[in-house]
């Protein structure tokens, strides 16, 4: 399982050493799409749905 191996590598090579060194581990916050972007996507999907009808 490549995803399990990738996760295991992340834990043993990044997370655990950071925990041992600093006592904590945090991840960067992900940027969420703006309301304008979400509204544009909604409109786009509604137009696609109408074309399929």
TrEMBL record:
Top-level taxon of origin: Bacteria
Annotated protein name in UniProt: Uncharacterized protein
Organism: Candidatus Liberibacter solanacearum
Classification lineage: Bacteria, Pseudomonadati, Pseudomonadota, Alphaproteobacteria, Hyphomicrobiales
